[in-house]
């Protein structure tokens, strides 16, 4: 979902850069309050995990492929602010060093996969986890919510990406949005599954490291 | 959070495992590329003004699998370096500042 150079119009580039820059300042202040220098290896390893996971494209039906974005996973383990910040760093390295995502599209890519993708999915998780379903055990329900929020992180990012492409005049807005959401609704199933699998692995090895264990239910 | 400083041992193992799996990465188009191709705006893609190792290729002379592994390692090291420098820079700017000390 990395938008390359040449896709976005100037107003969309300016708007997404301004929004992302404002968000980044707020996020960095939160990260700096939450973590100290001793946490750098932990944050760096998680950043590496997301960077490497994003390199592994897995074939999806219909001749397309998808990879873990990892933003919601990082939000569960490190908190939403740290997750957004790591997403920004990962996107910046991908763009500058490996030409994955455009320079003019960094604001949009960070908005879609960082601010919106992480923020909206984490909010959805916080809302859904408060619901009590008597038919499901607490553990099973929590797993279901993690899967759904992981899926949602990709779909909501795709929705915003489609809107940006449509507003840039590349295609009819409703057509590009529906196609982006449609194909990413399938790719999101991979995100939900991998998020749940990796989260459960970390939970079983080092539950003390997980942010939501200390901050939510 | 306690002892996050030791977490990098096993997180590092997980990253190393994923680095290995990069060699099996699919070359099929991702969701956005698929949509761009379908709607006919793929050709609007412009070359980035800055690109050192385009498409995760360190050298054209190396096998694709080795390029993937080296790119994964290079990106991981860069991210670690950036995070270290950012926190060090912020510590120098605010030496007396109290933090919540999650780690």
Would you write up a description of this structure?
The complex is a heterodimer of chains A (217) and B (103). With 217 residues, chain A is mainly alpha-helical. Chain A has helices at 10-34, 40-53, 71-78, 80-98, 106-129, 138-167, 173-205, 211-215; strands spanning 58-60, 64-66. Chain A has one domain: Orthogonal Bundle (Arp2/3 complex 21 kDa subunit ARPC3). In chain A, 73% of the residues lie in helices and 3% in strands. Chain A has a two-stranded antiparallel ribbon with strand order 1-2. The radius of gyration of chain A is 17 Å and the shape is globular. Chain B has 103 residues and is mostly helical. Chain B has one domain (4-93). Chain B contains three helices and no strands. Classes of the chains: A mainly alpha (217), B mainly alpha (103). Chains A and B meet through α1, α2, β1, β2 and α4 of A and α1, α2 and α3 of B.
Fraction of residues in H or I helices of chain A: over 70%
Average predicted local confidence, pLDDT of chain B: 83
Strand percent estimate of chain A: under 5%
The CATH topology annotation of chain A reads as Arp2/3 complex 21 kDa subunit ARPC3
Alpha carbon gyration radius of chain A: 17 Å
Structural class of chain A: mainly alpha
Biggest beta sheet attributes of chain A:
2 strands, antiparallel
CATH uppermost class of chain A: Mainly Alpha
Element pattern of chain B in H and E? HHH
Give the tally of β-strands of chain A.
2
Query: Pair with the most extensive interface?
Result: A-B, 74 and 67 residues
Total domain count of chain B: 1
Care to count the β-strands of chain B? 0
Draw up the topology in text:
The complex is a heterodimer of chains A (217) and B (103).
Chain A (H helix, E strand, L loop, with lengths): L9 H25 L5 H14 L4 E3 L3 E3 L4 H8 L1 H19 L7 H24 L8 H30 L5 H33 L5 H5 L2
Chain B lengths: L7 H14 L9 H9 L24 H30 L10
Quick rundown:
The complex is a heterodimer of chains A (217) and B (103). Chain A contains eight helices and two strands.
